[in-house]
Amino acid sequence: MSRVRAMMPIRTAATAILIGFVVLGCQSTVLPDGTGNTAREAETPEMETVYGFADYPIYETLGEAVREADFVGVVEHISSRDELLYPIIDDCADPEVNPQVGQRIKQKELDEAANPGTLATVRVVESYKGDIEPGRLIEVWQPGGVKDGVLYLIEGSVRLTEVTNGKRIMLFARYSSYSGQFGLINQDVGLFVADSDRLEPVRSERTIVQSPFEATLDLVTQAVAGDAAARKAGKVPVEPPEKCPLLERYPWPGQAG
């Protein structure tokens, strides 16, 4: 019989995602975690495995993906480690957007609510949107990782450390000034293999991500140029920056010293 592990739906500063996990049983084989993995808890074949879901916004076109992303660029994976994602609790955000606003939650409850994830360090190779200097290292958080000796994986998604069909990855990500980390705009169009001009879906030993659209590096360049032109003409609404000091801890890495 499957068992539900209650995980609190949370909002990160980068994007809103609903994460849930259900225990489907132990798995005899677990993916290798990739060269350079520095996870605090190693994944082993005997580890209990929990498959779950992450409910992201949906983007059906390349233009929508470019418009949503703060950073679009080609990166190379350096290393990964397990990293829990805790609910953001503050007193100056919109309670309709973040239901944790103003709550007083004990640390034990926060630890139980924290979602397991994987924090990857990647090196920027080429920046299409976001103006991050090539060679700079940035961090990308993805749901799915080890917590309390259990491996949590998201159905239909591939973590950067699991990609088996390429080394250069096109990233569509949003930035969190709260954590100083990036998060994918969603699991379907957040990552592509960019070893050639044609962007290919990422795959791992357990799954292949199905993207709703096809793209090339040239088309990405055109979409970024179109997005910039639309913003200049006032055709794309631009949300004002967060005014809460809690959400302004880290400068944009493109401007960081």
Count of separate structural domains = 1
Number of beta strands: 13
Helix content: 10-25%
Structural class of the secondary structure composition? mainly beta
Task: Please outline the major beta sheet.
Answer: 6 strands, mixed
Q: Tell me the series of helices and strands, N- to C-terminal.
A: EEEEHEHEEEEEEEEH
* CA-atom Rg in angstroms: 18 Å
**Number of helices, where a helix is a run of at least 4 consecutive DSSP H or I residues:** 3
Compute the average pLDDT: 75
Form type: globular
Distance between the termini: 53 Å
Low-confidence stretches: 1-18, 21-41
Beta content comes to 25-35%
Task: Please provide a written account of the structure.
- Strands 1, 2, 3, 4, 8 and 9 form a six-stranded mixed beta sheet that branches.
- The chain has three helices and 13 strands; from the N terminus they run ββββαβαββββββββα.
- Helix 1 crosses helix 3.
- It has one domain.
- The protein is mainly beta and 257 residues long.
- The N terminus is likely disordered.
- Helices cover 12% and strands 32% of the residues.
Spell out the key features of this protein:
257 residues, mainly beta, five-stranded mixed beta barrel
Secondary structure topology:
Layout: E1 3-5, E2 10-11, E3 16-26, E4 48-55, H1 62-68, E5 71-82, H2 107-113, E6 117-129, E7 137-143, E8 145-147, E9 150-154, E10 168-176, E11 181-184, E12 191-193, E13 200-201, H3 217-232
Parallel strand pairs: 4-9, 7-11
Antiparallel strand pairs: 1-3, 2-3, 3-4, 5-6, 5-10, 6-7, 8-9, 10-11, 10-12, 12-13
